[in-house]
Every structure is written in C-alpha cells, then in structure tokens.
Amino acid sequence: MKVTIVKVHVKSEFIEEFIQATKINHKNSVQESGNLRFDVLQSPQDKSQFILYEAYDSEESAKAHKTTPHYITWRDTVADWMASAREGMPYEGLLPEISSE
Amino acid sequence: MKVTIVKVHVKSEFIEEFIQATKINHKNSVQESGNLRFDVLQSPQDKSQFILYEAYDSEESAKAHKTTPHYITWRDTVADWMASAREGMPYEGLLPEISSE
C-alpha cells in the first residue's frame, strides 16, 4: 500500500469552498481502480488545516491519480485558496497487508 | 469519523521488534467494533519513523481502544523502543461520510 499524507493549509475565507471542491475529488478518486483510501480530515483546533490521506495499491496507481480529470480540475480550482504550498509525505503502508505491485 | 495520526519514532535497533509487536496490535484493533482503519506506515526515507493512522466511528470507540488488553500490551512492550515520545494529532474525518455518534 502506497500512502501519501498531504498537508493542506487553506485560506480561512475559502474553507467551505475547499470542502465542496474536495468532495467532488473524493467521490471520483475512490472510484479509481487502484485506490484504497482517500480520506479528507480537518483539524478541530484550526479548521483551515486539512489532511488528505491517499492510499493506492501501487506507485503506478498513485501516479495515475494525478493525471485524472477530477484531480486536475480540483488542483486548478483550489489553487488560489491555498494559504501555503501543499506538503505531501510518502509512506510505505505495512499494515493492512495489501500487495503492492 | 474520528481520526488520530500518531507519529512514532523508534530506536533504530528495535525497528523489527516494533513492527512485530505492532502487527499483533493491528490485528486485534481492526476487530474492535468501532474501528474503521488502523493503518501502520513506515517512512521510506527514515525507516525508524512510523505513522499509526487510527480511525473510529466515535470518540467513545477511540477512547475504548486505549483500554483494550492488546493496546495496553503493545504500549508496555514498545515503551523502551521509543526514540522520543509519541505524538498523536486528532482530526475530524469529513470524508468518507461516516456518521460519528
């Protein structure tokens, strides 16, 4: 399982718009063939801080996500709403044991 | 969905022992009634850095985890293998939409 934890800091005036745009991305992303998780988290302490928790069955599936129309639309839609650049941290998912190709 | 992202820094000489002890905790934790995810991740850049990604259907289920025999056994087993104190960051899981009580 290939996991990316993406930290997203949204300008506070665009929090609701960000959630709405991300719902569409989420809905489509979980339908990608190699997708295992696409969780969207919000910090209760600072509602402008989000985490995208994205898990795929292989590097190829994770890379393919970034070429999908829904990802590209989301990326362009949210671009001006970012308070700072997104930070993606890659991890190897050890458990649950899902074979990575 | 109530999510906790726990950062774990393990002393490098105990990485394998930590993985084995955490496998047992994982296997039992995913069987808890309110558990939605219990993912164990390892940084490919620094194999002593782990993430536990724990999601529950409610605060009560998340709290109940810390009273289970498997959690307590794990906590005590790994205590001397920690390179620094674990850091748990709580998040509200917005998506997927799973009702929290």
Short summary:
The structure is a homodimer of 101-residue chains. By secondary structure, chain A is of the alpha+beta class.
Could you list some keywords that capture this structure?
homodimer, 101 residues, alpha+beta, Alpha-Beta Plaits
Notes on the protein architecture:
Two copies of one chain form a homodimer. The first copy, chain A, is of the alpha+beta class and 101 residues long. The first copy, chain A, has one domain (2-91): Alpha-Beta Plaits, CATH 3.30.70. In chain A, 32% of the residues lie in helices and 33% in strands. The first copy, chain A, has helices at residues 15-29, 59-65, 69-78; strands spanning 2-9, 35-42, 49-56, 87-95. A four-stranded antiparallel sheet of chain A has the order 2-3-1-4. In chain A, β2 and β3 (49-56) form a beta hairpin. The first copy, chain A, is globular and about 40 Å long. Chain A starts with a strand and ends in a 6-residue tail after the last strand. The model of chain A has no long low-confidence stretch (mean pLDDT 96). The A-B interface holds A 1, 3, 5, 19, 22-23, 26, 30, 37-44, 51, 53, 55, 89-96 and B 1, 3, 5, 19, 22-23, 26, 30, 37-44, 51, 53, 55, 89-96. β4 (87-95) of chain A pairs antiparallel with β2 (35-42) of chain B.
